[in-house]
Structure formats: structure tokens, C-alpha cells
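Incident log, structure service

09:12 report received: a user says their structure output differs between two submissions of the same chain.
09:20 pulled the input from the user's history:
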Amino acid sequence: MGCTVAGDRGGGRWNELPQGVARVGGIRNHGRMDVTEWLLDSDPSIRWQVMRDLLGEPGDAVEAERSRVAREGWGARLLGLQADDGYWGDDEYGENGDRRGTHWTMHLLRRLGAEPDDPAVRAAVARVREGVVWKWFDHRGYFHGEVEECVNGGVLAIAAYFGELGEGSEGIIARLLDERLDDGGWNCERESGSTRSSFDSTICVLEGLLAYERAVGSAMEPAITEARRSGEEYLLERSLFRRRSTGEIVLPRYANLSFPPYWFYDVLRALDYFREAGDAPDSRIADAIDLLLGKRADDGRWLAGVPWRGEVFFAVDAPEGEPSRWNTLRALRVLRWAGAE
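09:34 re-ran on a clean worker, output below:
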């Protein structure tokens, strides 16, 4: 493998970096541009994460920048688009792939890093709690979730992030623990008879369980951690994108790096999840790291992938094939975590 990793949860060793790869301040320098400065010349939602994950800025400086997410740029625009009844896009989810619904807007606010304690954010979340329901599922309140594992994993992540854990999230946890398949992961097609897990459903559930664990801390039930670990093993046993049986890529779209990811799985999303989980890198991510390195352009940036279908309020990433700040930020922090810069 063409990378080095600073740790190994699963055993085995990593090879050395390819010759000729230089490190400057932890970020590869191609002599053509300052990638960090380019990243910082952006929305507050990107800047604060660059400051935290790539530059190691002091916490108070990072938080000061993060506080701007709800007051200017993309975060403020999204908050301003919420209706008085709590909905975005007149829907709790979004019909026919529409990404302007409440669920996907809340997801995006979480990924942007909007401060949960900001007054504007608190007011928006309160409107969701009080007014948004799942109309096709007995008009349950939004934070009680619906029936699909991928959706409920997302609702759990959103509830944990915005401080809305309670009866609804407890019900989601119980469902997810019961819905885990024998191979360790989850699949939204389980009710239709599927007995094999889905990469898409599994990453959505893992993100929700991890957010829940972070929110409840020492009160975490061991069964929840065990379920999350089994989902991680499902992905790691498949090198994050390969068939366990043949080693072939499961689906070509797993190599499509697009932001926001919605419910879709991709290699960078999975790697960023494992980074966020905080464990030492597992040797079984080697192929995924190599795939990521192979997508780096000569100027040190990563390009935007094919965007997922659906109407959006406004774009938060570059058009397909142009340099992507979200992909570059996420890739660089993954490589730093993996020791493969």
C-alpha cells in the first residue's frame, strides 16, 4: 500500500509513503498554491473546521469562527429559509429526491457545525420539535423517527447534535438494535426480505450511534457500543468499499466523493467517520486511503464528484470536476489522522 498509518487497530503493518511526497506544515506542498489559504477563503463552516482539524488553532479562536456559522454564510441562509411551522421545503423529508426538506436541512446544519446553543439555532430546533411530523408514519414527531434504518440513523445523529435526545431517540435506539443483521450492519430493505447489510444504511446508522454515544457519555449502554463496533467491522472486513467474497468494488459510486452525502455511502464519508470515532487507524483501511490519495490533483486539492440528484436551496460545494473545499478539507484531515499526508 502506498501510505503510512500512525496506528493499527486490526493488526498488520503499513508500507512507507511513496518517494517524493513532501510534507510542509502537515499539508502536502505542490509548489503551486497554498491549499490552506484557499480553504480559509471560504464560508465560516469550512474555516472553523480547517482551523480545528488542519491548523490546530486555539479552542477559543475556533469557537469564535464557528459561532459565525449561524449568523452569516450558508448556515444563516438555511436558518432564514425555515417556515414558521418548523418545516423547510414544506416537507419533513423531501419527495422524489428533493433535498430542501427538513431532514436534509437539519443534516446540513449539523455538517456545517452550526452551534446548537446559538439562539437562532435553538429557536429553529424548537420549531422542528413542536411542528414537524412524519406524515406517512402516524404523524410521529420528527425526533421520534420513522421506520427506515438509514433515516432513523440520521434523525438520531441530528437529535444528539442539537440536544434533542429523549423518548423519541430511545425508541430509535431500540429499533436499531433489533434491526441489526447477522453480518453486523443494517439495511433499509430488511423489511422487504434483505438479509445482507447495506453500506449506505450502515454508515447512516453508525453516524447516529456515534453521535448518541458522544452525547450521553458514561451513561452509554454497552449494547449500543457493541452494535456500533459490529457495524464498523462490517465495513472494515470489506476494506470500506470491496466485496468480501471477491475483493471487487461493490459499487462504482462508492468512489464518488460528493458533499453533502445525504444517505449515500462513499469512501471519504466512511474514512471521515472512522477519524471522528477517534480510534487508531485500522490497517484494513489501506485500500481506501490509497483510493483517496489517487484522487488528489497535482495542485494538492480534491475535485468535486457528481452531485446527488435532487433540488437544493443553494449549492455548498463546487460544481462537478472543479476543486472542492469540502472534499479537500475532509481528505486532508483523514490523511493527517491516518499518518498518510
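09:41 both user submissions now match this output. Likely a transient worker issue. Closing.
09:42 reviewer note: Residues 69-131 form one domain. The beta strands are 23-24, 27-28, 133-134, 140-141.
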